[in-house]
C-alpha cells in the first residue's frame, strides 16, 4: 500500500501542514503534509497551483509567431521553448532537414542555454545549501554568503553564466527572448568578430566547468550517507539519445531505462511520443502526471533531466565529460544512481559537456555561412523534442490551411518530473519531519529536495537568499498548533 493511499479512509482526522509558497520556483507551488495526532506524516504532496494556458491561446495564431510566443513560458529557459517550437514547425515549411549552418547555430544556441542555466542553478540557487549545510543560518544561505566565503566559486559561477548568455546573444539576437531560430532554420549567422570573441574565452570556460564538476563530486563524496539517501526513490529514466546511443541534447530518439538500468524502450521516434506517453490529471495540481502508456500510472512514471540523461546514454561524445561520467557511473556500483542530490553532480558533468561542444563548434566555418534556410512541400503537423536544461521538452503543433495553429500540446521538463518530485518530498518528509517540531532548517530540507530537480527556479533569485516561507500546523478544528517562518 502506497504512502499516500494508506490515509484515504481517514483524511478528515489528520492535521494539515501547508508550505505556501515553495520558494525559488518559476510560478507558484506549495507543499501540503497530513499528520496524525502523534505528528507522523501520512501524506505529502507538491502542488502546482498556477494555471498555464499556452496550449489554448497559441491556437489561432500564425505558426511563424509561435517560436517567439512560447518563450514567454519562462525567463530562465526561453531558448529551450524557442528551439523546440522551431524544430516542431520545420516540417510545416517543408524543412524535413535543415541546413548544416542552421543546425549548428541552433546547437550552439542550445548548448549556450544549457551552460548558463546549469551554472545559474548550481552556483546561485543550490550551492548555498550544499556548501553551508541545509540548516545553516538563513542570512548565510544565499549567493551573497557564497561570494563572501567562497569568492572563487561565486566568481566562476557568474562568469560561466555570462559566457552562456553571450552565446545566446550572438545566436538569438538577445540574451532573453531572442528571435534567432525560425521554422526552416535560423535568421542570422555568426559574425567573425562574435565568433572570435567567444573563442578567446572557450578554453577557460572548459577549465571552469571541470572545476565545477570536481566541486560537485567532492561535495557528494564528502557527504556520502546523506547525499546517497536523501529523498531516495527509484524509477525509470527517460531522455533523448543519439542514434549510436550517445548523449545528444538537441536531437535523437527517445529511450527508457528501468530502475535497475535495463533498456526497456528504445528507438522511439519523437513524432510517436503520444503512442508512449499519457498525461494523468489529478484534482489537486494544475501540473499533469505523465507515465508510459503500457506500464500504467503506478509503474510507468520516470525521471528526466541530468540524472537521467547521464545514465541513459551509452557515452558522452566529448572526452572530458565522458571521463567524468565514467567516474559517476562507478558510484552506482552496477546500477543507476537515483538519489535526487546526485542531480547536481550530473548537472555539472553536462555543463562540462556543453562547454566542450561550444568550444568545438566555434571552430566550424559553417557558423559563418549564409546557407541558413530550408523549405519544401508544406506540412500540417510537427513534433519538436529537445533536452532542455531540466529535462525532455516536447512541443507538438498542427497548422490549418490558413496557416493558423489549430492544435498545441506542450509537455515541459518539470511536468515529466512531477511524480518524481512528489516522491522526493514524501521521502524527505517522512525522514526529517515525521514526529518532530517544525524549524526553518527542517523546512529547508523539503525545499532542498525540490530544488535538486531544478524545477524552473528563477523568480526568487532577486531576493538574494530571502525565503519568505511560512508553515502553519493547524488542528482539525482550525486552531493554530505550531508555526515556523523561513527567511523574510
Q: What is the subunit arrangement here?
A: single chain
**Helical coverage, percent range:** 40-55%
**What fold name stands as the CATH topology of the largest domain?**
Cytochrome-c3 Hydrogenase, chain B
Write down the Rg: 22 Å
Number of helices: 16
Instruction: Profile the largest sheet.
Output: 5 strands, antiparallel
CATH superfamily of the largest domain: Cytochrome-c3 Hydrogenase, chain B
- Coarse structural class: alpha+beta
Mean pLDDT value: 88
Give the C-level CATH assignment of the largest domain: Mainly Alpha
General description of the model:
- With 488 residues, the protein is of the alpha+beta class.
- The protein has helices at 54-57, 66-69, 78-89, 100-132, 143-149, 151-172, 192-222, 224-229, 273-276, 296-299, 306-312, 319-331, 342-361, 413-416, 418-433, 440-451; strands at 15-19, 29-35, 41-48, 181-182, 185-186, 236-241, 253-257, 263-268, 277-280, 289-292, 302-303, 381-388, 391-399, 405-411, 469-474, 480-486.
- It folds into 2 domains: 5-50 and 421-486; 54-416, Cytochrome-c3 Hydrogenase, chain B (Orthogonal Bundle), CATH 1.10.645.10.
- The protein is 41% helix and 18% strand.
- A 5-stranded antiparallel β-sheet has the order 3-2-1-15-16, covered by helices on one side. A 4-stranded mixed β-sheet has the order 8-7-6-11.
- The model is unreliable at 1-9 and 457-469 (pLDDT under 50).
